[in-house]
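W.,

You were right to be curious about this one. When I first looked at the sequence I had no strong expectations either way, so I just let the prediction run and decided to look at it fresh. Below is the sequence, 265 residues in total, followed by the output.
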Amino acid sequence: MSYLKKISLTLMLGSTLTLGRMQPAEGLPKVEINNRNQILPTTPSSVENDSNLSLARFRLGDSQQVIENFAQAISTNPSLVTTYYDRGVAKSQLGNYRGAIKDYTQAISINPDYAIAYYNRGNAHYQLGDYREAIKDYTQTISINPYSAVTYNNRGLTRLRLGDSQGAVEDFNQAISIDPDYAVAYNNRGNARNQLGDNQEAIEDYTQAISINPSYAPAYYNRGFSYNQLGDGQAGMKDIEQAATLAQQQENTTLYLQAQEQIDK
């Protein structure tokens, strides 16, 4: 069973509900492009057109040009909250998390109830390793919108990073109560339970995640780890092999190589 001893659990940072793609914790979390159904301040049509053009370019992946366009829109109307927010999104996509935090903060100063700006600022803090600041932002998001499963998930993950496994379980419980089909939250709760030494309950969570999403490679990988800790190396290897197969199909190189390393031992 020594072939699995060095396996580390795979954590998942929840993406926003709109873009909804799962990301490894060490990867870039998806940020939410502003929902134009939100209440917008009255602005000159030229500014709104500039902002809409920037959003279109953002969706085409031209983040640097988008930032320049938003700067022009802000110079025309510096109180346009959504433009600061959208520029923060573009900066996040470029990995400029500190710059993104400044823009999200400016948007929040204009609209203190801008829940998604707190959420994305929390994600930026998370990427910088500022976990306590991230928790503050996720908590503020929850105070404005207590029905955001992804925010509970991300706060739980952040608590897990800080070593608060029991607090993490409580947040993942809340995420699952809001969205019972949230496979990512089951995976992460399994990780928290593993940290608490509850390997059997962790296996149950990974199994539930897999039942929701049968192609969920990290859940297979993590379940294999927990089986190994319970002394069932055969079941553990079977899950690791399945994780490797799925990771290769999904072009998840990091997980594939990690799993393959265990298989080759």
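Here's what jumped out at me. The beta strands are 12-13, 23-24. And, maybe more interesting for your project: The two ends are 10 Å apart (CA to CA).

Coffee later to discuss?

I.
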